[in-house]
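Researcher: I'd like a structural prediction for the single chain below. Treat it as a standalone chain; there are no partners to consider.
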Amino acid sequence: MYNVALIGCGRISFKHIEGFIDNADKLKLTAVCDPVRKRAEEKVSEYQKKVPNTNIAVYEDYREMLEKQKPDIVTIATESGRHPEIAITCLESGCHVICEKPIALSVKDAEKMIAAAKKNKRKLAVCFQNRFNAPVQRMRTALEAGRFGKILHGMIQIRWNRNDAYYAEAPWRGTWEQDGGTLMNQCTHGIDLLQWMMGENAVRVQAQTRRFMRPIEAEDFGAAIIEFENGAIGIIEGTADIFPTNLNETLSIFGEKGSVVIGGLAVNKLETWRFSDANSIGDTEDKVLNPNKKDPPTVYGFGHSELFKDFIDSIEKDREPLVSGESGKKALEIILAIYKSQKTGKPVDLPCDFSTLDMKGIFDK
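Model: Treating it as a single chain, here is the predicted structure.
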């Protein structure tokens, strides 16, 4: 059993509680922490409804929690801008860390987190839980088996709605200092999936972003073209402005011998499955697709529990988690390249020095 603690009890934290409960054979929640004590107490109640007779300590200061509780694993679900400071402190205190996306808001901070994990011989994972969606795993298996042949192009579309009330609920949302815009927050999951499936590192990004409607500092829409080392092209379309509610998140990968599209509310439904070897393998489209499959109740899907399970396995087998700190850094670099391309009006080559990128005035012409 691993003693686990949760830091940050806001919007996404219920998925962490769900992950603890679903992995109760390995994880024991011993502490929760949030500056707003009432929110932490609500998480305790959520957990105890499914795992009664458990003693869970409540803290408002995560440093005090680390000192007194000494958890084996900490999951971080705070505002994005605080991820590096908290994660590094936890790693240096001897804890393994699962950090919500994005890993950080700067490459420098992400590298510090990765270095702290290596220095302290601890595991670090990032919550890109959609990698664990069953259709996504099926696509990845086909990719690793070479069934697509040469990858030609891919696309991620994130067509969601985050209204004014969403941003008013937590003033840090949409700020350059603590969040970034819809690409850094909502679309980072899909950007991770796209780069993961394209098979090579991104080498050039050209993009446009806009603040069309939302009362925030950062963008509520972004579009980008990405060139990968193998010559394949990736396309990103991401928005928080869809009327009136969330529409879809769709990942499409096209190769010389295969085409796969995964759609639904949050990349959870196979919509296209066509391969040149489908008849010989026996997984033709009519056998694979399930048109009656329902969307999950929220855009967060069901992947957190599987991500936590993989993380536990990575500790026990001393391997890297499927979504490592390095994985989180790759998605971050693409998003920062999009921001730089918007600001300069030019393509951005990767790898790139982002140390001078100032997001202030990013929409000024």
